[in-house]
């Protein structure tokens, strides 16, 4: 049986039709889910991309990874396995096509892939959304945009002195090289890569269209929503300033519909080649995106609410009808689920559950807690859940106040305990009981980030990649 994993950056569970969203954002994904296992309580291993992919691909939390050259880059340790390398041992041909500049070979994400390409980092020529790229001077704007975004945050209105350069820089990006690559390009290369793999194959792709800033062309191509480019840039400026704007939600939905159209391309390609009935399809997200849930947009470090951590997970297995899965599931256990699908041994990755199988509607509470964590120079944060109880704790070294290394764009979930059965939106935190068994587990798990960062740093990103990251909103 072949396996395809489609991960969608910033995909919210509650914006998919299969999870009862009212707009037609995901008709193709919904049709695949009609004969799939649908996980209602799946959770990312971290609130940002590299923390999540260390979990998805290698069953590792951030603490169990190693630091890259910035806090946003968590590395799979040298010599350690991934799902891809595990499947190689069982005769699988493997390939991956992605475009997120934060996820590359320097983080050992390519471990186990026969064919691996990050189209954003590997490409010698940038993807141009219009034909004007050669007519516009080439200058780095990532740092300039980052400074403007920081000055725009948390104001009641977007000040003209920030708005005008913001609009100019966005227009420059659109005419030259938009920071996120459109999924049409990624999927075209992905299908070309699968064509070169022998069966059985394991293939992974990651799509970036939902990650801000959303390309106006992606939105207008979706037929779900459209508006003038400058109107979209103005909406983006409000999003950057954490100013609530209904157009931001509409743009998100339109971009999701555009992605769904690309999933349709994969589905039809498999059917034309008589592969659909012999290919399992897994669709999930690295993390979700805050859409003004608590007055902010984005996915900050140390923000451990479930509007970032709870993700969609749909698994279609040929010949199986599937069902709704209610028990808690960590994306760090995906290696177990895939191994169970194929009836092969599970790899010995750090994240392990106590379930014999995850593909069962049995709602018995798993005795294994689910962990998600994030590490920066400011400290180490962990969220632990078991059953309906969730606890968020920070390391003793966590810095707040004037001397904190938390930037203006970051938001922090305070030390808190939640009862998700009576407070699913995490609005009414309970007093943390120091004798609660999850509190003890948190204390035993948390590390000193200063010691963690003593690992030898991996190779630094080049100036081009750093500029791309800053254009996407990252400080480093």
Please describe what this structure looks like.
- The chain is of the alpha/beta class and 476 residues long.
- Helix content is 31%, strand content 17%.
- The chain has helices spanning 27-33, 49-58, 83-88, 119-122, 142-152, 160-175, 183-196, 216-221, 229-240, 246-272, 306-309, 334-342, 437-445, 449-452, 463-471; strands spanning 2-8, 37-43, 66-67, 74-75, 93-98, 115-118, 201-207, 279-284, 290-291, 297-298, 310-316, 324-325, 329-330, 370-376, 379-386, 389-394, 416-419.
- The strands form four sheets. Strands 1, 2, 5, 6, 7, 8, 11, 12 and 13 form a nine-stranded mixed beta sheet that branches.
- Strand 9 (290-291) and strand 10 (297-298) form a beta hairpin.
- 50% of the residues are buried.
- Mean pLDDT is 87; it is low at 124-137.
- How many angstroms does the end-to-end distance come to? 41 Å
Which term fits the overall shape?
Answer: globular
Which structural class is indicated by helix and strand composition?
alpha/beta
Residue runs with pLDDT of under 50 for 5 or more positions: 124-137
Instruction: Count the E strands.
Output: 17
Q: What is the gyration radius calculated from CA atoms?
A: 21 Å
Helicity level: 25-40%
> What assembly state would you assign to the polypeptide chains in this entry?
single chain
Q: β content, as a range? A: 15-25%
Helices, by number, come to 15
């Amino acid at each position: 049986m072949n396996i395809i994993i489609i991960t969608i950056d910033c995909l919210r569970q509650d914006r998919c039709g299969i999870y009862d969203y009212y707009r037609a954002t995901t008709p193709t994904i919904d049709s695949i889910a009609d004969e799939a296992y649908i996980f209602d309580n799946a959770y990312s291993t971290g609130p940002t991309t590299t923390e999540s992919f260390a979990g998805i691909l290698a069953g590792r939390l951030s603490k169990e990874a190693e630091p890259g050259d910035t806090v946003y880059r968590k590395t799979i340790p040298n010599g350690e396995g991934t799902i891809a390398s595990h499947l190689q041992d069982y005769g699988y041909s493997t390939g991956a096509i992605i475009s997120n500049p934060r996820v590359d070979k320097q983080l050992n994400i390519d471990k186990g892939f026969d064919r691996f390409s990050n189209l954003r980092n590997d490409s010698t020529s940038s993807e141009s959304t219009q034909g004007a790229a050669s007519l516009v001077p080439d200058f780095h704007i990532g740092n300039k945009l980052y400074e403007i975004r920081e000055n725009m945050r948390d104001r009641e209105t977007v000040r003209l002195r920030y708005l005008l350069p913001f609009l100019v820089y966005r227009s420059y990006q659109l005419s030259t090289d938009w920071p996120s690559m459109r999924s049409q390009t990624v999927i075209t290369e992905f299908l070309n890569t699968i064509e070169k793999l022998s069966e059985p194959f394991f293939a992974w792709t990651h799509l970036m269209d939902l990650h801000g800033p959303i390309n106006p062309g992606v939105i207008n191509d979706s037929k779900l929503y459209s508006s003038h480019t400058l109107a979209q840039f103005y909406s983006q400026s409000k999003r950057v300033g954490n100013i609530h704007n209904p157009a931001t939600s509409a743009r998100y939905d339109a971009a999701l519909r555009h992605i769904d159209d690309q999933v349709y391309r994969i589905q039809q390609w498999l059917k034309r080649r008589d592969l659909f009935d012999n290919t399992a399809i897994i669709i999930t997200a690295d993390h979700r995106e805050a859409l003004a849930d608590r007055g902010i947009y984005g996915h900050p470090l140390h923000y451990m609410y479930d509007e970032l951590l709870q993700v969609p997970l749909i698994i279609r297995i040929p010949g199986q009808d599937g069902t709704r899965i209610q028990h808690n599931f960590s994306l760090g256990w995906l290696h177990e689920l895939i191994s169970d699908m194929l009836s092969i041994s599970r790899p010995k990755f750090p994240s392990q559950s106590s379930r014999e199988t995850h593909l069962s509607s049995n709602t018995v509470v798993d005795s294994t807690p689910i962990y998600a964590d994030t590490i920066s120079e400011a400290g180490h944060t962990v969220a632990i859940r078991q059953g309906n109880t969730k606890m968020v704790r920070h390391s003793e070294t966590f810095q707040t106040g004037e001397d904190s290394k938390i930037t203006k764009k970051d938001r922090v979930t305070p030390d808190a305990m939640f009862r998700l059965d009576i407070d699913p939106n995490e609005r009414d935190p309970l007093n943390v009981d120091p004798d609660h068994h999850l509190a003890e587990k948190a204390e035993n798990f948390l590390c000193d980030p200063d010691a963690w960062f003593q690992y030898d740093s991996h190779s630094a990103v080049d100036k081009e990649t750093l500029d791309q990251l800053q254009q996407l909103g990252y400080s480093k």
